[in-house]
Amino acid sequence: MALFIRLLKFATRYRSGIIFSIVLVFITTGLGMVPPYMTRLLVDSQLSNYHTLNAAEQLSVQDGLWHLVLVVCAALLAVRLSVAIVSYVRSMIMVVIGNRVVFDIRQQLYRHLQRLSMRYFETRSTGRIMTRILYDVNAVQQTLTGNLVDIITNSTTILFVFVLIFAINWRLALVAVAVLPLYVVNFLLWSPAIRRASRDAREQFSTVSGQLNDAISGMRVIKAFTRERSESRRFVHEVREIIELNVQAGRARTWLRVLSTLLTGIATIVVIYIGGREVLFGKRMSYGELIQFNSYMTMLYSPIIALVTINDQIQVAMAAIERIFELFDTTPEIQERRNPLILRKCEGRVEFEHIHFSYDPSEDVLNDVTFTSEPGTVTALVGRSGSGKSTLVNLIPRFYDPSRGRILLDGKDIRDLQITNLRRQIGMVMQESFLFAGTLRDNIKYGRPNAADNEVVQAAIAANAHDFITEFPDGYETRVGERGTRLSGGQRQRISIARAILRNPRILILDEATSALDSESEAAIQEALEYLMQGRTTFTIAHRLSTVMNATEIIVLDYGKVVERGTHAELATAGGIYEMLCDVQFRQAVEKMEEHEDALKAEQEGRKDKKGGENKEKGKK
Question: How is residue 225 annotated by DSSP?
């Protein structure tokens, strides 16, 4: 109930429309009470025994009865037309309000999602998150646009009928309402099972959505490893679990409805039996009153059964509402100060002071990291895979906060800065380049949507991307496909670099920015990046030593600790990890050169043998 009240808070801004709709509900319900009364008038009039009268009596009452029939017909027609018009207006008001409320929920949910920390997205599947925003909110829409109106309408009908049946015959009314506690027991018996099964089914649906998202994204891998049948079996197994859970919920719903209908039938039989005795022997009711009472009885039990059915739908919706507010109640790990500072001008001095960080409290990924990068300098982070290089640079834009220590930007703790203002000072080229399903121009302008077209072209030229872009028939308007699937890995990386160049940041983070490029492209990009780095504080992560040799300072990380620092010339002969990495890459380069030379020799010998064979053939001729 508390969750439902929280949901209704989203509708408070539309309360005037809701109140007006509730007034219309009372009007339609009140009008709905008129037809049974009209029927009673006809039954209790002489119309019911008209054919038992003699000719003279029939003639004397004929005009009056015909007038009564016309009045009743006109009244019923007016009631039906009024109910139809008012119901339409009421329904449209609630449809509009319901859709606006759902829009507000989805909008706030998405904004809240944007504020959540990176750790939230790393620990939950994409399909599960999408299910929250799309399908769960749709379930809420059904509740607000349909179920809420039905609840008000049926509850109002029950209230009106209660008053009327007690006014007609309070003894018979007590018999009619005596069955209501059994409805409550039936409701309490089956509702928990319906809600539990519905919640589990939605959780399983999220799992299937995540699996389907992975399968579609990784279809190339599935086909490459011939795992189609295995993935199909896995998908079918997960879907079968959804079916089983839905069957469980359906079984509970069916029992709830069947027992409710049975109680209604028994109550109706008892009322007719006692009411018949009242008419025939007690003389406390007329025949018309009994028919009117029975009509109201139907109007009493029908809303109750309808409420039971609505309850089924609400139990399903409540499972969705629980999941929605679970997301709303998730607190972002990265919090902004109440009155954050705003950097009007960023110089780019970055200080790491005794930084500790861990994804798992039992193990530090970074351990007492301390160094300073002055404005305009290039700091290269080097080390084995898993040594904490990417984690360290991810602390600068506050994707994560250190567990201990602090990072200063121009002497100010970055936790005191406005997050948006901080991140506007930073340009990033990730190890895995991500492009959105738009045009090449849209992707380059992503960091600066208002950039001029000539600036986009200049950024693409600097990133060595202009030439391949102009080769496409649509040029910069070429659509890249989902995640840039129409481009090669190197092309995607160059678009990412162009995006960072266009942003023109004070701090530049390059996480394996040239990893997806061939040697020729890497040289061109390296030249562009060196131009871009001028006057900017740059952090670069690379395994290729050619990328870090000219860095102002090289920081060598091992198991989250700074073990060496200095220039390439100082570290290359220091006898440490950096020298070892240099030796490994040098040996690899030598081996590649030797392999290349062997391949050239083999090719030359093959040509000689072929030429010698041709000369022999000529000699024979």
Answer: T
DSSP string, 547-607: HHTT-SEEEEEETTEEEEEE-HHHHTTSSSHHHHHHHHHHHHHHHHHHHHHHHHHHHHHHH
Angstrom distance (rounded) from CA 51 to CA 54: 8
d(CA 423, CA 118): 14
> What are the residue ranges of helices labelled H in 484-551?
489-503, 519-533, 545-548
Amino acid, res. 256: L
Q: Tell me the CB-side half-sphere exposure of residue 209, using CA atoms within 13 A.
A: 19
Total residue length of the chain: 621
Contact 42, 69 (CB under 8 A): yes
pLDDT of residue 41: 75
Find all residues with CB under 8 Å of 11, minimum gap 6, and list them: 18, 97, 101, 144
Q: Answer for the pair 601, 590: CB distance below 8 angstroms, yes or no.
A: no
Contact of 524 with 501, CB cutoff 8 Å? no
pLDDT recorded at residue 44: 67
Order of strands, sheet of 412-413, starting from the edge strand that comes earlier in the sequence: 366-373, 350-357, 404-409, 412-413
Q: What is the pTM of this model?
A: 0.69
DSSP 350-399: EEEEEEEE-SBTTB-SEEEEEEEE-TT-EEEEEESTTSSHHHHHHTTTTS
Cα 427 → chain centroid:
27
In 3-state terms, what secondary structure has residue 34? helix
Q: Quick one: pLDDT at residue 225?
A: 64
Helix axes 180-217, 228-277, angle to 10 degrees: 170
Closest-CA residue to 322 (of 487, 203, 150): 203
List phi, psi (to 5°) of 7. -65, -40
Residues of the chain above pLDDT 70, percent: 84
- State both tokens at 530: 């060196």
Structure-token pair, residue 609: 């043998």
Which segment, 25-39, 241-255, 387-401, is predicted with the most confidence on average?
387-401
pLDDT at res. 615: 57
User: What residues have CB less than 8 Å from 575, skipping those under 6 apart?
Assistant: none
| Spatial distance between the Cα atoms of 347 and 504, rounded to a whole number of angstroms | 13
Write the CA distances from 478 to 437, 474, 512, 534, integer angstroms: 10, 5, 26, 31
Q: How much is the average pLDDT of 575-593?
A: 69
Give mean pLDDT, residues 577-602: 64
Exposure string (b/e) for 75-85, b if CB count within 10 Å is 16 or more?
eeeebeeebee
The edge-to-edge listing of strands for the beta sheet with 426-429 is 426-429, 507-511, 537-541, 378-383, 553-558, 561-566
Name the pLDDT band for 166 (thresholds 50, 70, 90). Answer: confident
- Residue 541 backbone class (left: φ over 0; alpha: ψ -120 to 50; beta: rest): beta
Euclidean distance between CA atoms 542 and 511, whole angstroms: 7
Specify the 3-state DSSP secondary structure of 544.
coil
Amino acid at position 41, single letter: L
3-class secondary structure, 326 = helix
**Residues near 152 by Cβ (< 8 Å), separated by ≥ 6?**
21, 22, 25
Quick one: tokens of 485?
A: 């699937």
Q: Are strands 553-558 and 561-566 parallel, antiparallel or unpaired?
A: antiparallel
Rounded to whole angstroms, the Cα distance separating 380 from 554 reads: 5
